[in-house]
Amino acid sequence: MGFFRKLFGRTSTEPSTLDSAPAATEQPAVAIENPASNEPHVEPAIEAVGGEPAEVVTEAELTSPEPVAELPAAQTAGALATERSQKTTAPLDPEQLPERDPDGTNYLGTRDISNAPIVAKAVSTRGLATWAARDIGRIRRNNQDSVYSLLMSLPDGEHDLSVGLFVVADGMGGHEGGEIASRRAIETVMIAVLEQLALPAMADEDPGNPLPLLMMTAVQDANTRIWNEAQAHGTDMGTTCTAALMVGDGLYIAHVGDSRLYAMSDGKLRLITSDHSTVGRLIAMGQLTEEETRNHPLRNQLYRTVGQHPELQVDSIYQSLEGISHLLLCSDGLWSMVDDDEMAAIINETPWPQDACQRLIARANLEGGEDNISAVVVSLPPLQAQGALR
Prior knowledge:
Shape: globular
Helix content: 25-40%
Oligomer: single chain
Order of helices and strands: HEEEHHEEEHHEEEEEHHEEHHHE
Structural class: alpha+beta
Number of strands: 14
Distance between the termini: 15 Å
Strand content: 15-25%
Number of helices: 10
Low-confidence stretches: 10-37, 40-65, 85-92, 103-107, 384-388
């Protein structure tokens, strides 16, 4: 049983596609004129699978139903050798599989493979891709944001599973303090996922913690690491941290602070996380609207961050990816400058996550660029292809 089947407690009942491969067929012998003796030299026929003797035919019978005009022996031999060389080196149709001889040899271009199984015909209109980008903005003197994105494929029994890790951390706490804190947060989360998920999966070992616990523990470990380092150096550094682990068609989120994660479906962005800020709480209580928070004097006041207290509560969220076309993780330097509808429009109009990140950051700078700006954009396959993520 594969690593992820142990993790999710499920087994596979899908039949193997290898069972439907076509049976091997016989390869006829080919007669080639010998210019020295003017007698045909017949290559030995490959033994037929069914035990029947193979019929010896000429190259002309293989390639053309029409009789071939007689030519001088040397010219005939050269033409046939050239023709055979072209046939055996012709490239395969990438959408078809050739038949094989019993010894596994392929004679490329010499067989009719019209009945071979089709490998793939569909062309994806949107695929699995990601990009992470950050910018200093137009006001700050240093960039305290850190971003991270990773896509990989891990073995899951007889199949592979798409796995992705996406993180945004917005640091705070004086010159270089916030930058160090945000890097420590991403580094700790990344190491936890690689050590507790990726490496055991490659070795097909028993899984460690359940995925929600893995993510929560990783952010709490980051909190302890940053807190101890801040106490040792006498700083008040801290950071937000919004981390999302994609495994198959599920998303496991660990969240602290006011960096955000959005999911896009039907062309609209929907906020998945909650801001751990004063204005975020006022919004939850119905005392402020989203638009009113953009210019509120307390919009940067956070009541929960990573690294500024010895203990930390982490929001743990599960989100199914069914029907979702994109993910957006961003710091408040983006969402406070550009409203949700405009961010959605930019992502909808931009096929590639790299271009979407650059356009989002450029738009935030046009609106003033009052803070560091970070964005991670993930594009997901269309709904009918979501099964490919499993």
